[in-house]
Amino acid sequence: MARKRGLDHEAVLAAGFSILDRNGADGVTLRAVADLLDVRSPSLYSHVAGLQGLLDDLAFAATAAFSAALRDAAIGVAGDEAIRAFAVSYRRWATDHPARYELTLRAIDRPERRRAGIGAVETMDAILAHYGLDPRETRRIGRSLRASLHGFVTLQAADALGRGDHEASFDALINLFLDGLRSRIVAPSAT
């Protein structure tokens, strides 16, 4: 049987993302992807390593896209403005792509996964370098920001923030983070 023209790894991923965006990760099946592409399920095995391979590949691509969005948000800004831009981009991407965001959290111990996600870590490290922290402290503070942002977007997605102005609450979260960050930067004393 000849391969269908235009069927390649990118087409399979695009179909997988289409299903993911509509139905979440549980809706992504090889049959659903094959049906969308108008092929038989076995045809997909030339392009992905089964369902688990497809989900892993979707996770890699989603993580790389998320990292790129965070990096792009921080280009041309520094300090507090860069942290705000990073935070706003994080929230926007997670809110606009909830199922893809969930995939970025998948624990996949493969080099492709680490490469896909390193961009976000490097962006955060570059932003925090502005504050003159040592590398260990930078990593801890970066994790704290990520945890805060993840908590906010997760609660918001679950409609668990309650009533009120979520924009003001998000702004308060960032202000609290920045206040805490500034308190860690101690100016040398004049003794």
Walk me through the structure.
The protein is mainly alpha-helical. The chain has two domains: 1-48, Orthogonal Bundle (Arc Repressor Mutant, subunit A); 55-184, Tetracycline Repressor, domain 2 (Orthogonal Bundle), CATH 1.10.357. The chain is built from eight helices and no strands. Helix 3 (50-74) packs across helix 5. The longest helix has 25 residues, at 50-74. The protein is elongated, with a radius of gyration of 20 Å. The mean pLDDT is 91.
Give the secondary structure arrangement, pairings included.
Blueprint: H1 9-23, H2 30-37, H3 50-74, H4 79-96, H5 98-104, H6 111-129, H7 135-157, H8 166-184
Helix pairs in contact: 1-2, 1-3, 3-4, 3-5, 3-6, 4-5, 4-7, 6-7, 7-8
Helix share bin: over 70%
How many structural domains? 2
Report how far apart the termini are.
82 Å
Structural class by secondary-structure content: mainly alpha
CATH topology of the largest domain: Tetracycline Repressor, domain 2
Order of helices and strands: HHHHHHHH
The biggest beta sheet reads: none
CATH-level-4 superfamily name of the largest domain = Tetracycline Repressor, domain 2
The CATH architecture of the largest domain comes to: Orthogonal Bundle
Give start-end ranges of low-pLDDT stretches: none
Summed over residues and divided by their number, the pLDDT gives a mean of: 91
